[in-house]
Batch of 4 targets.
Target 1
Amino acid sequence: MSEIRMIDVGNKPVTRRRAVAYAHVAMSEDVRDRIRAGTLPKGDVLAVARVAGIMAAKRTPDIVPLCHPLPLSRVDVTPELDDSGVAITAAAETTAQTGVEMEALTAVSVACLTIYDMVKAADRAMRIEGIRLLEKSGGRSGAYTAEP
Amino acid sequence: MSEIRMIDVGNKPVTRRRAVAYAHVAMSEDVRDRIRAGTLPKGDVLAVARVAGIMAAKRTPDIVPLCHPLPLSRVDVTPELDDSGVAITAAAETTAQTGVEMEALTAVSVACLTIYDMVKAADRAMRIEGIRLLEKSGGRSGAYTAEP
Amino acid sequence: MSEIRMIDVGNKPVTRRRAVAYAHVAMSEDVRDRIRAGTLPKGDVLAVARVAGIMAAKRTPDIVPLCHPLPLSRVDVTPELDDSGVAITAAAETTAQTGVEMEALTAVSVACLTIYDMVKAADRAMRIEGIRLLEKSGGRSGAYTAEP
Amino acid sequence: MSEIRMIDVGNKPVTRRRAVAYAHVAMSEDVRDRIRAGTLPKGDVLAVARVAGIMAAKRTPDIVPLCHPLPLSRVDVTPELDDSGVAITAAAETTAQTGVEMEALTAVSVACLTIYDMVKAADRAMRIEGIRLLEKSGGRSGAYTAEP
Amino acid sequence: MSEIRMIDVGNKPVTRRRAVAYAHVAMSEDVRDRIRAGTLPKGDVLAVARVAGIMAAKRTPDIVPLCHPLPLSRVDVTPELDDSGVAITAAAETTAQTGVEMEALTAVSVACLTIYDMVKAADRAMRIEGIRLLEKSGGRSGAYTAEP
Amino acid sequence: MSEIRMIDVGNKPVTRRRAVAYAHVAMSEDVRDRIRAGTLPKGDVLAVARVAGIMAAKRTPDIVPLCHPLPLSRVDVTPELDDSGVAITAAAETTAQTGVEMEALTAVSVACLTIYDMVKAADRAMRIEGIRLLEKSGGRSGAYTAEP
């Protein structure tokens, strides 16, 4: 029979923890320019992506079934226009018994979905790509930094 | 001042609509084999990913700020192990005034985040990639099929 | 591999549908009398149970993974004190492609959990029992009435 | 015993409905000027207020216990700086069996709470005031326009 | 580009914090009397307002985008009929790194929206007004009491 | 006037707490055998019940109006086929100022509703029964074990 469980974190120490995640939305140059110019019909894409990413980070345990609830002390979502679309970085922090990778990854994923939604009428071939953990610290398993 | 708005869909016809989205989680071969064997500590990864994807599709308007609420008539989330990890396809359908791309894309994104969460203790360098729309039909703008 | 799916209701006709469910919380006579007298520390137990049941019915597709979202046109939750505790009946109605059994059953279940929560400091041996469908109508499979 | 119930709307006709609501956040001139200049520590107050108002409108039946779920076809939240703070107007539309007053009122209320939250470190004596329905149309009881 | 961020509270001390907020729903005398008499069609208005206010306080970080999640240890919502309608006071408490003003303000706002919803069929000219912080204590910036 | 309130837990000590709850879904032998064989149209019933129970435990304060929010450190939901249907046990743990009975009871209740939903097309006379607390420890009132 299928076994499915939350990990028991009750014996882990309460420590300060931080994670940073990254994602990218690839789109046509034309659309990227319209984001920069602020001329898309749904409005200020990057502002809405920030808000959506922050709100999603707070709801991570409602969205990802086996995640533990956490008192986030900070979430930062930073979208930046680049040559091929929008790059999103999100940092999450807590003082808790388990890490915040999923909060940072959920933040970047939902920020990308939000950009997609606001831009999709102009470009149906967009892609969200490269969602990954950039760095992580504060847990028992030591600090982690992704290879470049 | 920043303009942000939901598109008014009140004058669009109610039609049957369908969308299919795709995503992939790239991971080490070892971890992929442990998913297949069912030996990861959080349990049956693909079953939880299916459930998480379906539930997320239903909550899309809560997660993506400018999405319209929709009465989904069907959501299917299909994960498949491949050479480099897990590929996820999700199909969403409704009879409504607007399309279900965001529901299908949210389903695959959250299914990937769920896989990531259940596997992350074994592989911290995983990537979620290639999230995109495969096909779409039923709307005013005609059917769309992504180029291969 | 485990198959998990929402049923496709896209081809079912939109009809008016209704379901009635029942549940019971068994408790000591003393506690039942304190509910009647309104002297429990958390307050008016039956009023809170009604509100909790109605709100839960509306959130059924968020709580029960494979339920379809539905535009409920009516939910009624009726708690009644009896010899051995509190009996709850809930009626739900919609005009939709699928039935409202789960909405009625979720309403009575959450109303019972709410009563339990408000009373538990006074009686730790309570039981919730007999949760079942009393009647159902409006679907393709015809009307159903439970045997007494 | 306390009676609490959702109104049964199952026999009401499905019509196109619209409601507009208003609210105001009164604050010091200094703080209002800092919103205009964009120099408050939490960032672009009016953009976040728009997003929060739209998202809250969609969640009205989760927040207001006896509200019916509705497929909103449009929500618009418009904040404007004035002499004494920020005025918010929200318009909501649907095609349904019941009206959207509560959606419009929830949108303006949550937009105001969001402004309050983003500004509170700079002015603890703010007030939210004048929350009311400006106009309503599409229901059985006829159109309504508030007296000026 | 618009900057939007949650304040980082990770370096603030964990202290016991309390906030009290106030709001008022102004309505016709006739309607106020029907609330007192309990003869409105949706039922016991003040009981539902209490429950809605308490539940909304717990969901504040889901509703107000930049609010931190908090483990509330107490929420009290007290509605009182007065000459011109219903006055609501809400007290919220926690032991955390940040304050509970927004929880108390969200509680009174949603309690008012709930009253509005239950009464609106009888009086379309109601107003919610005077939403403000009455007192606050436990934070770095010292205690605050609103001027009368 | 009806008094309704959350208990103030602000003065209770933070201790490690645990609760275990039980419930049972009674169904026909035929349907129970189809769950075991995995031949029901919605798929792997017990896997979905586990996920639904875990997710519901985390959302207990959103579902049960007067429950305090809690940082759950572990939730385990274990369904087992028996002679007359499926028995569910759920264990919840936290380190907090109040207990986790409601989290464990909500987990078993929602796991049962999920089983009911997935099986209902095959058996409309199912019953959910015997929902109760099996054991509890860590609070001021001492450990509790239900009589067999």
Target 2
Amino acid sequence: VPKLSGNLLIGQSGGPTPVINASLAGVLSEAKKMPEIEKIYGMKNGIEGALKKEVYDLTQEPGDLVEKLLYTPASALGSCRHKLTKAEEYEQLLDLFKANNIRYFVYIGGNDSMDTCHKISKLAQEENYDMQVVGVPKTIDNDLPITDHCPGFGSAARFVALSTVESGRDLEAMKTFDDVAIFEIMGRHAGWLTAASALGKRCEEDAPHLIYLPERTFDEEQFLKDVKAVYDKLGYVYVALSEGVRDKDGEFIGAKDAATDAFGHKAISLSDGPAAYLAKLIKDKLGIKARVNRPGTIQRAMSSLASKSDVEEAFRAGQAAIQYFTQGLTDVMVTLDRIAGEEYKIEIGKAPLEKVANVENFMPDHFINEAGNFVTKEFYDYCLPLIGEPIPEYARLVGKPIKLK
Amino acid sequence: VPKLSGNLLIGQSGGPTPVINASLAGVLSEAKKMPEIEKIYGMKNGIEGALKKEVYDLTQEPGDLVEKLLYTPASALGSCRHKLTKAEEYEQLLDLFKANNIRYFVYIGGNDSMDTCHKISKLAQEENYDMQVVGVPKTIDNDLPITDHCPGFGSAARFVALSTVESGRDLEAMKTFDDVAIFEIMGRHAGWLTAASALGKRCEEDAPHLIYLPERTFDEEQFLKDVKAVYDKLGYVYVALSEGVRDKDGEFIGAKDAATDAFGHKAISLSDGPAAYLAKLIKDKLGIKARVNRPGTIQRAMSSLASKSDVEEAFRAGQAAIQYFTQGLTDVMVTLDRIAGEEYKIEIGKAPLEKVANVENFMPDHFINEAGNFVTKEFYDYCLPLIGEPIPEYARLVGKPIKLK
């Protein structure tokens, strides 16, 4: 199939991940090999840049950019949270594509961004403008459907797994002084990242002891019972808590005053999150101290702790976008498909954009225990390969304490 | 000098660090070579364990313990925050030492723990009980005097430096949506760890933009002016804020209801810290959004990001404690002395315990800029060698945005 010669427009959107730049690197390295692509333009702050006609000419950047992007956190092009709604915005975009001979469009992002991507693809088709559109998945939330998992999740999961088990050892060491630690973890609707807190746990003493996910209704009474039971047994309790836990009425726990973002999501991670609220509840009702660990954006930014397999898959997903152009494909998102078998292996696949736009993929029931306060062995099997190198086996004394004279 | 044959009692105390176990490893590996040491007892939860006569017999642990301790976070023996005050506690301890032939005592800890260590040393001397006492420094706060720096600081500083610059890239990428991020960093009285947030910054755009230390009086009006000035210039502001900032009356910012610990310190890092308070202030007064990153105990626990030089120095400090026993020394703390010269080099030294007990070492004036909201080049020179491998040079686009047609 002969391809049109023209320019590539690429953007990054939504909350950054440690490897969204690795996907950009994959796109860039592959786009340079595709003869039909002339200029590579990077939208400044995603679709907002396209609306303002502000782009970076990536064809002009130094040759070491691709290599550096592999370990650079956040979005090198800048990101945004902009929902396309107005008719004049579509017109503006179509004008931009036409005026600048944009024939290839890549958008790296999550659910909302895949919606943007799909709308642009539809726009081009409806207006008979010949432009191929491919989405590259990206989200620490791991909530895109069809793909086995999302680039970005494995690295954030690695940070959460390591920081939980390591700060859990801190709490355990301080148990004569501290009582409870609550780690508030990102994930507005899906609990994947919170669930990943379990991955470093090797024994009962290791953190976390309790995990609360948005997939289950949060009940304050039951929570206090759970905390008390662990406390009575171990003398300390480490709780992994999703920022998105909600009560039976669907209200976010402790987030009555939260602001709302452009997509109508409540921004619950400003100063009042559920962890601070529950720490107070524990103090009031159980009379024990609770600390809050809330790394906030640190958990989605730490490329220093990126999962090696995540970096590699993010890069491959970026390359695939360009390969799909050469195959004549459009209106698809790149997927990571897991090949059944003993050894972890991924094959690059694809899904129609309309099937992923705005669809959220929650944790399935068999990944959550019956009590709704921990994960299952099946979740470990699913998730462990995604975080790269195994979590170290830290020292733990073998002998029990003895009584001196 | 012929030494007494007897048993070694060792404890870890105060807030854990990523390398306090590396010091324990150093003590253990060296103690095994000292013929006079028979049994090695590890106090369960520091001096509290000694008071309860609860110890681990470390002589019985498997041979790979030392190696594993080198990368194990927190305190393998358990820690405590117990201040020796009562006369009967001293009696109990003396009885314990005598009944169990404890002739060697090592305590790994910070200011408060060196006070405990010194009191025990004095007790033995006053009661004519022949026991050598050595303190091994440990604190992420880096606030012990005489020593160039404290084991534990370099690793926590590495985490803070990396997480600041990496989550700073996140904020920068999201600047069309987010405005301000406040990273609340540990250090009740000394600003060393907060200052380390600067170490990954290579240009104006990189985080942090403002640093507030307990060494300077915090003024809310000036803070708002500082934030606004950076915001007007860059469109986003990353603030590194010590949890210990105080106003002109000496009151912790936003911590009116805070609880008090056994040493009389206000425990300001529970649910209400200064960052949450200031985020609200920014929203109210400047009308812009502020996020809070507060990793809490994660910042002092992450052995996964430990500084290699810190691990090595912590190990050497532990070894030195035993070497000082063979040299007939007592009532001293091990110090790390920096040797002047181009290349970073450390020599192991010592300081009398009475000169370090309860003494806090604050940041000197020449490490803080005139405005009191950033660090100086001299601080970089002092601190960069302590965090081990250099912070990566992340990608940053060279070209300026262009305007498409």
Target 3
Amino acid sequence: VCQQTGFDMSDPAQLETVRRQFVLKSRPTGVPKPDDFEMVSTPVPDLEPGTFIVRNAVIGLAPATRLRLGGESSYMAPTPLGSVIYSQSAGVVVASAHAGFALGENVALMDGGWQTHARSDGSNARKIDPTVAPPSVWLGALGVSGFAAYAGLKAVAGLRPSETVVVSAAAGAVGAAAGQIAKIAGCRIIGIAGGGRKVDFVRATLGFDAALDYRSSTFRDDLRAACGDGGVNVYFDNVGGRVTDAVLGVMSDFGRVAVCGQISAYNATGSAGGPDWMPVLTKRLTVRGFMIQDHQDLQDDFIRDLSVWIRNGSFKVVEDVIEGFENLPAAFIGMLTGANLGKTLVRLEEG
Amino acid sequence: VCQQTGFDMSDPAQLETVRRQFVLKSRPTGVPKPDDFEMVSTPVPDLEPGTFIVRNAVIGLAPATRLRLGGESSYMAPTPLGSVIYSQSAGVVVASAHAGFALGENVALMDGGWQTHARSDGSNARKIDPTVAPPSVWLGALGVSGFAAYAGLKAVAGLRPSETVVVSAAAGAVGAAAGQIAKIAGCRIIGIAGGGRKVDFVRATLGFDAALDYRSSTFRDDLRAACGDGGVNVYFDNVGGRVTDAVLGVMSDFGRVAVCGQISAYNATGSAGGPDWMPVLTKRLTVRGFMIQDHQDLQDDFIRDLSVWIRNGSFKVVEDVIEGFENLPAAFIGMLTGANLGKTLVRLEEG
């Protein structure tokens, strides 16, 4: 059975009745531990009118999911204890009572979750075309990660050609996309990442003009040297904290900062304080936080542009794929602690 | 001799030849001390072609001048050791070899300095009309302080009627102006100041809808209560630091922050870190630093609007006037440590 081209409903042996899920067992303090998650088996939900069942083939992980595991209200709804962990997923419709989604269609689900099967009413589902790119790509470069990069640079930062751009968490899914999109737009790109392996990846594989290790004792000097006298026009920030503090110090007057993530704060226990604000004043910076939900008007442009760039090879899709449903907690914890290169994905065993 | 209506050149006794100045003796660490300044006597400068001499009648103080006393490069040029302290001033032309400025005219100087007489080539001079308001007002409400408030609200924050606005350092010259301008624009205004005397002043004299003491142990709760469920649409920030950290926590989604000053950092020895940035992301805030120099296109609108509002009584001019040239250092230190209500001005003895 090929999940990417359909599911043969004529074979009843393929109709699983049990789904596996990871649910939130306890709210993590600091970096999550494997014990904070619990694998449970539940029945595949009933096919109510207007819904369909997706068998997940691949699950996409994102650092911001960490925010849902905390108890405090946030801009993302907290995951209740005992409920399935939030994530995007892609898979195939294996049963349908929905007029818009037919058996065998490939779909991506915004809230597919850490589970083998998800029921959807279609509101958070999107059909994907596996002839353009495999399902995993629709969770990363052609999904939320790529779209965050695209919208942040275009709509939030107002990127112009020939500018100098700094991207933090440059080896992550969003950072890798942001740097490549800015490069295609004719900018000079400096990536910041943690450790030699990631720095090499950002420079050699992703083709950034420069890549810097924020863990290096010479990081601030390296950054100043890499940026040159003109300073940084656009900073695409995924991490916050002391990395952002350093970058603000090398911004050019009237520079723009697109705040896409604050990974450095996601596992923090209590506020660690933020970057020094003086440069915001003295350099007359514009700092804007954003969420992709607020930029849906760019979706069609995004899919059109990225599809072209992926096809003509100017944009490299970079994926860090972990095999096996049972490895979801480890993959998530690894991503939060810096193990991944590119989009972190968990591929489920064939059904 | 009335300095506000002219200076009679026919009386040679009025032509002083000695000017008094305060120069920078040592770069302050933390809050400046009186000893960091030195009073010197120098000759009134020669009247070179294309210049004129102003006898200062009043000197306006601003917290940001503290930045010029440090050695590091900043967005304001550092004052060299031994040079006159930077300030605005207003006075009368007492000698002129400049076609555009005649004897007896009232002028305001952007860089008049802590001195009894200043020479100008006209580039930093502006004629002022004492029939509209006394010279001191042209340094405050009709000068840089009022203009910073006006430009910050109009051009930087994009203020709209009926919004909830928070102003920090609300008892200071810029804060008092910002709150009153926002009130005139039909907004609900919450001021933040330090200590009961200032809080009373902000509420009773300036007429803000609410005033809060950031030194109170219940400050964060008070702020949350004052802002209500809708949150803060616009934050006009003069101070930064923990006050700003608290306000970011009560911003509404898509709120705007105009960063006009960072008083909490001006005396800091080393970076104390800034406010937590998470709300910038989660509330999709727009934070913009600005300087009035970048908004000169609004000057005419500003003078027109403020003149009307002062005349019709909807805008209260609030001045904290200290008498006597020799009291400049004490007035400056007092302002930096929170003594003033409204614009801090030093009036020079009659010449």
Target 4
Amino acid sequence: MSGFKNQREYFRHLRGLGPLPEGFRAGTTSFTFMPAERPSEEPYRMDLSAVVLDEPTDVFAGAFTRNAVPGAPILIARERIGKPRMQGVLINNRISNVAASGGRATAERLAAEAGRLLGIDGSLLFPSSTGIIGWALPETEMTAALPDLARNLGGDPRRDGLPLDIARAIMTTDSFPKIRVRSIGAGRIMAIAKGAGMIEPNMATMLVFILTDLDIPRDVLREVLVQSLDGGFNAISVDGDQSTSDMVLAFSSRRFPVELGDFRREFIGLCRDLSLDIVRNGEGTGHVMEISVSGDADADFLRMIGRAVGNSPLVKTAVYGNDPNVGRILSAVGDCAGNAGRSIDSRRLTISIGGHRVFADGVFTISRETEEILAGYLAEQSQNPRISGYPQNDNLVKIAIDLGGEGGKAERIYASDLGHEYVSENADYRT
Amino acid sequence: MSGFKNQREYFRHLRGLGPLPEGFRAGTTSFTFMPAERPSEEPYRMDLSAVVLDEPTDVFAGAFTRNAVPGAPILIARERIGKPRMQGVLINNRISNVAASGGRATAERLAAEAGRLLGIDGSLLFPSSTGIIGWALPETEMTAALPDLARNLGGDPRRDGLPLDIARAIMTTDSFPKIRVRSIGAGRIMAIAKGAGMIEPNMATMLVFILTDLDIPRDVLREVLVQSLDGGFNAISVDGDQSTSDMVLAFSSRRFPVELGDFRREFIGLCRDLSLDIVRNGEGTGHVMEISVSGDADADFLRMIGRAVGNSPLVKTAVYGNDPNVGRILSAVGDCAGNAGRSIDSRRLTISIGGHRVFADGVFTISRETEEILAGYLAEQSQNPRISGYPQNDNLVKIAIDLGGEGGKAERIYASDLGHEYVSENADYRT
């Protein structure tokens, strides 16, 4: 399945996930601690999780934030991604281990100790962290929690609820757990994500862990992961910010044969579905926009235009208010192109909203009647942003922009709107 | 004067403007019309204004939006800026004449008719429009209003209230009139602006008209105008959007001699002051940030970093909430540099807020105590965004970023915060 029309379908999807792919084990634990940086406050809760393969694998891949001041886990992962084999990941939420003194050594010690308790080489684990920037990991408390984590990893690895437990344990301000799964023959691809929740001095960090028991070569997995990014995890935008900790990791336990074409298609489709779950999860998201841009041979330029429209605060607030505001879309397109030193022939440019043509031949083609129809269309695509928790539908506000030149296929960007709930979530935490 | 500590000082500034510089006349009128695009609504009000020189001048200059789908007035102005002489500008608010059928011919006919009534060549007038995108100018009603405008231009050109009348007549959703003036010897430079008000299908259009009776050569005026942009009108950001209609025009009536160095210094200072007025005027602005970036030889890169911080919705909402959120600033810096393919040595990077060092040597240097001091600092710099109208102070939230490399002077960007009032202003117009 790729979509869901209502919450009931989303719940059915979560209930029908099945166990982890074969050859993987996972576990989670939680504890509270008093952060040194905020001594007078209530205790903080941290979840600690691990996903490991039964044996080390040479089939693993990763993609990491391009942020120029990345966190310690990213610095370690960039090194370990070049190793011949890896065996899993150790994950914590609450503190991201970015810009904290000695953060790198702490992460390495925790992975070593987790490995010792699990009977595997700790340098074969990727550390992965999300949460507050600038604070130190509570190493003492985390170390004390590792034996419990190791015990939980010793439970039944085929338990149906295990994937959902992991998805819940890596959440920070996420409003619902995000997992997608696809089957090919006897094997499966399962992807677990957190992302797009923003609160406290925290980032919209995206963590994605993709587990498969399908046997593909290492270079195929690495190639397919890169291919999946443009239409998937790199095509989404909530704030326009790329966090210091974004990380996508994929592992194969190599249990079942698969046609490479099938694997590629299902892997890319799964990543796109999960990307949409992440955008929909943005705190206070009322609408998800699909901005499709065509009519130029330069795919990078098409994506840049889509991103400019999706990141424009004026477009985002208009969509939030169910306002089919053609002027703001037009201006964002022209602003982006102008800044990039590219000209646009406005007589060949067309813009549509929800399939209705609203701009052509250099002028608005929206009547008062169409405007009312489109305001209704926008309202129909919305979720109530005041109802948090599981998504109410998988509707998209479709904005199509054709630049009018020669070009291949359309590029698509997915973006959230911007409303009062976003401001409250991101500004009001001290009140 | 360049600053004002409270509303009383701002009112004193407005009362002390004096008349237009010598050699200029101005007038304004207003009328209502029923827009064809929204037949069932209330009548709309439009203000129509003109500022003209007593004789055509060869000393004029202009800077225009780089938006790739500009409005008809911009297309006409880009041509007329190359003419040997010009004599003034005809300005309307309410409708921006962008992407409207036949918009260019309409603007040219209106300028021709205004010129005929004023006894000057209409092709020596720049048309200038701001307001709703996509609608046609109400040409019939505007033409009918031109005789009244011409009569008003026949009044006393030395009247003290005239500059303020023009500043008020070009406002759209601006919350206060914006004028700055500087004297050098017997002559003056006066600049009148609108901008940064956003509502309806309207853009944050900035219009600036700079009038001087100081006698400088044409090429000096053009050069100084370009020099003023980097630290002035190009250094400000409310939405990150550049509208389809942004326009800066400058004219000299060449009445009084001036040292070119004096002129340059006062002109650039005046443009910076007026730029800050425009940011402060953003609907719902609670804080104005001054983001100063140093430590790299590439000034464009420094400005790009400053803009990324000032445009980050996460930084903007944190500042709105008086939250000294170092993580979001750090992440915005790293995100921008990473996307530009530039590395940052985080051990040499420093960040300060309000003069307090909050990041150095790769780690946060903010204690719980400093955090409370800085939250207080942010609150002190704020205006109450719920009180519209004249600005309550000229305070700035000072964020200083040093990239740690070799570099010359700091580049400064000025940006507004983002809060509930911004969302209401931009999303709720249908309610």
